[in-house]
Design brief:
Order of helices and strands: HHH
Radius of gyration: 31 Å
Length: about 80
C-alpha cells in the first residue's frame, strides 16, 4: 500500500499523532567501549576440549594423557 492509496479519513487520523524521537548516539564513546570489553562474558576454556558438564571422566583423564605424552616425548628424540 503506497501513500497515495491511503484514504483521506485515515490519513487525517494519522496526522493527528505526533511522536518525538529521542536522539540516540550511533557511535559509542571510548569509555563505553572499554567498559563493554571489560565486562564481556568470559569464554568457557573447556569448550575447546569438548567437555560438557556431565563428562567429568574427560576432565580427569586429559591431564593424565598430557603427562604420559610429556613423559614419553624424550624417547622419540633419542
Amino acid at each position: 500500500m503506497s501513500k497515495r492509496e491511503i484514504p483521506d479519513e485515515l490519513h487525517n487520523k494519522l496526522d493527528e499523532f505526533h511522536v518525538e524521537m529521542p536522539d540516540i548516539p550511533v557511535k559509542r564513546s571510548r569509555l563505553e567501549r572499554l567498559a563493554n570489553w571489560i565486562y564481556a562474558p568470559a569464554k568457557d576454556p573447556l569448550e575447546i576440549l569438548g567437555v560438557k558438564g556431565n563428562s567429568i571422566a574427560r576432565v580427569a583423564f586429559y591431564p593424565l594423557i598430557f603427562l604420559l605424552v610429556l613423559f614419553f616425548a624424550p624417547v622419540f628424540f633419542i
